[in-house]
């Protein structure tokens, strides 16, 4: 993305000067002309492309909301009979971020060079998933691109909403646990040592639970930095292990086995699988290809393996319901609904109903979890602090009572 300074005359004949961000000068000129300006001069401002700007770009990324907005804008432009090339050039000129503008500009250039929209999108897998590309390809084959992009926008919106709801539900308990850890660390390394010194200086019999707390406090006071270093190293190796295939699978199974939270994740993935398959089947994509694509975009190694195995079984001639029945990760209700879809020949609608069911289940589970976590975390935090204070203050009270 570059910055262009311009001089122009507006519709009222007044001179206007300013700057505009654009991928290239052609797009900058097009954007200014759409504002009703008659350009007299436009030049690239080299001074804006310094090291600081380059560093800022590293922190910018294309979000799911950006893709949803692009999909809806493309739908509107296609309904207005705007050509694909013109549509992507317009979107590139008005993109929210430089990265998105660059991607859309590249797609427009590929389309101008004779590429199909799906092939142009496929060159940017970091932005447009395999599911997205195949949906667009199906839209090209059926001649319903405007409907396809509308479906994609709705689909991405649903996925984003359900994922964010689950993530937001876990933010509060994570914050409470972090606060609990900080409070306990401060008490063990700052407060308890001073109180322990006072107890030992006064003398007297110190209870066993108090001696245990003082011992832990002394250890933490002397080795706190070593503990932090070991924690950082441990987290680093856990992260690196999590990048391996074995680590991803292990973490996935561990996440799904967590009480309450694991059920929420399971319902999210089941909703995502049903929604993806339903959308693709309604767009004319075959069930086998749909399973392969769904496995690649479900974003969980466990269910990715389930989809891959199911696709292999379906390819070998097994009905989808029987292929899914082999896997305990797929609940009986899912298998039963899929079997009904096979018998009635209405698989797309059945899967859509199942996706809605699991979205409601996620909403209910998250609301219930949030309602339970808040009081539980507060009680745990209060009990932890109370135990520490009691371990030190009760001996002080006993000593004071003896005088």
Mean pLDDT: 81
Strand order of the largest sheet: 2-1-3
**Between the first and last Cα atoms, what is the distance in angstroms?**
78 Å
Describe the biggest sheet? 3 strands, antiparallel
Helix content: over 70%
How many strands? 3
Order of helices and strands: EEHEHHHHHHHHHHHHHHH
Strand content: 5-15%
Specify the structural class. Answer: mainly alpha
| CATH architecture field of the largest domain | Up-down Bundle
Shape: flat
CATH-assigned fold name of the largest domain: Receptor-associated Protein
Counted up, domains total: 3
Give the CATH H-level superfamily of the largest domain. Type II secretion system (T2SS), domain F
Outline the low-pLDDT stretches. 48-59
CATH class of the largest domain: Mainly Alpha
As a whole number of angstroms, the C-alpha radius of gyration is: 30 Å
State the helix count: 16
3D architecture notes:
The protein is mainly alpha-helical and 403 residues long. The chain folds into three domains: 2-58, Dna Ligase, domain 1, CATH 3.30.1490; 64-157, Type II secretion system (T2SS), domain F (Receptor-associated Protein, Up-down Bundle), CATH 1.20.81; 159-403, Receptor-associated Protein (Up-down Bundle), CATH 1.20.81. It has 16 helices and three strands. The chain has a three-stranded antiparallel sheet with strand order 2-1-3. Strand 1 and strand 2 form a beta hairpin. The radius of gyration is 30 Å and the shape is flat. Mean pLDDT is 81; it is low at 48-59.
């Amino acid at each position: 993305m570059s910055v262009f300074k311009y001089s122009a005359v507006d519709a009222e004949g007044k001179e206007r000067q300013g700057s505009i961000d654009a991928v290239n000068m052609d797009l900058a000129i097009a954007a200014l002309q759409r504002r009703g300006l008659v350009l007299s001069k436009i030049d690239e401002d080299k001074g804006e492309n310094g090291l600081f700007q380059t560093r800022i770009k590293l922190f910018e990324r294309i979000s799911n909301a950006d893709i949803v907005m692009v999909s809806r804008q493309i739908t509107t432009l296609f309904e207005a009979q705007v050509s694909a090339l013109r549509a992507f050039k317009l979107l590139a000129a008005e993109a929210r971020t430089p990265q998105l503008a660059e991607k859309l500009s590249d797609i427009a250039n590929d389309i101008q060079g004779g590429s199909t929209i799906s092939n142009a999108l496929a060159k940017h897998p970091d932005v447009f998933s395999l599911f997205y590309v195949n949906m667009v390809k199906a839209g090209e084959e059926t001649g319903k691109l405007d409907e396809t992009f509308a479906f994609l926008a709705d689909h991405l919106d649903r996925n984003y909403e359900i994922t964010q709801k689950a993530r937001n539900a876990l933010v509060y308990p994570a914050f409470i646990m972090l606060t609990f850890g900080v409070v306990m660390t401060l008490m063990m390394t700052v407060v308890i040592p001073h109180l322990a010194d006072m107890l030992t200086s006064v003398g007297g019999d110190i209870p066993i639970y108090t001696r245990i707390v003082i011992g832990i406090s002394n250890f933490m006071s002397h080795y706190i930095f070593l503990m932090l270093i070991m924690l950082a190293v441990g987290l680093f190796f856990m992260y690196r292990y999590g990048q391996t295939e074995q680590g991803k699978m292990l973490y996935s199974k561990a996440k799904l086995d967590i009480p309450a939270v694991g059920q929420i994740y399971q319902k999210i993935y089941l909703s995502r699988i049903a929604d993806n398959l339903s959308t693709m089947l309604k767009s004319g994509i075959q069930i086998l290809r749909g399973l392969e694509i769904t496995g690649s975009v479900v974003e969980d190694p466990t269910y990715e393996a389930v989809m891959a195995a199911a696709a292999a079984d379906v390819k070998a001639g097994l009905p989808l319901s029987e292929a899914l029945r082999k896997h305990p990760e797929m609940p009986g209700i899912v298998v039963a609904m899929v079997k009904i879809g096979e018998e009635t020949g209405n698989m797309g609608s059945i899967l859509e109903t199942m996706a809605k069911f699991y979205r409601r289940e996620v909403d209910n589970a998250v609301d219930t979890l949030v309602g339970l976590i808040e009081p539980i975390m507060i009680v745990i935090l209060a009990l932890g602090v109370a135990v520490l204070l009691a371990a030190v203050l009760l001996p002080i009270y006993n000593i004071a009572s003896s005088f």
